[in-house]
Amino acid sequence: xxxxxxxxxxxxxxxxxxxxxxxxxxxxxxxxxxxxxxxxxxxxxxxxxxxxxxxxxxxxxxxxxxxxxxxxxxxxxxxxxxxxxxxxxxxxxxxxxxxxxxxxxxxxxxxxxxxxxxxxxxxxxxxxxxxxxxxxxxxxxxxxxxxxxxxxxxxxxxxxxxxxxxxxxxxxxxxxxxxxxxxxxxxxxxxxxxxxxxxxxxxxxxxxxxxxxxxxxxxxxxxxxxxxxxxxxxxxxxxxxxxxxxxxxxxxxxxxxxxxxxxxxxxxxxxxxxxxxxxxxxxxxxxxxxxxxxxxxxxxxxxxxxxxxxxxxxxxxxxxxxxxxxxxxxxxx
Length: 333
Prior knowledge:
Elements: E1 2-3, E2 11-13, H1 17-21, E3 30-35, E4 40-45, E5 51-53, E6 57-60, E7 63-66, H2 68-88, H3 96-111, H4 114-132, H5 137-140, H6 152-169, H7 171-175, E8 178-183, E9 192-193, E10 198-201, E11 218-223, E12 228-233, H8 235-254, H9 259-262, H10 266-278, E13 282-283, H11 286-299, E14 303-306, H12 312-320
């Protein structure tokens, strides 16, 4: 953590500007924005969105502290690695050190957004509600500090501690996933939300299903540009794909005439296997892109960004489920 000084930016982004600029158009990197809260769209520059004044600044014992310099250094190291992925259209050349760097970036990115802060502040209330179902107010006195909603400064300080330790605590979970580069076309572009690390689990497809960094079947998605994104999948998914590919190759060698009868979408299996092994892009069809973009909409706390002024999916999702007006909320079981 750094002491505050006059050289530190007042307006602080919780989605890096360099990433937002990838979704911009023209010399001014103008983005198209959908505001889930107001249900309206507008254009803006990357520097004017996904940011708040003094978002990472707080006080400890009267001393001003900020995480902004630490985040700036991390972004400066991460930007050229992600840009090289886009330039080379491959993740095959990522070194072990760069994989650790990106994993640290992902771990911090997940914890630095407005979505994470809102969830963090809501947890004490959720915990209090749960405990009140089982205990009296007198019994809750012993844990009152844990069920008291933190003020803004305390929340910032608590989350800052999480962010600082995130690379060590959470980075390995990202690093150990099976990484794949995803591709689409400008006709069906990827979008990016203000909480861009989005997750799903197809083993448990409930709206708030079995989601967690170390949960079997977890899929994590991160947009890089309108036509490229990264997928970080549970290793069990890669194992299933490799098994299916081996079966497919055996059938092709032994009896190719029955392949289409026994295996659904053999071309898709081969494409998945190739992308995971060689780091080349996995082409997404329109349905895949729709699912990817729906995750960005549902995870976003308020804003969704696109290279095109086309947010029909976002409006459709909000019309079907008003809970999507804000980002997904954590649960206390």
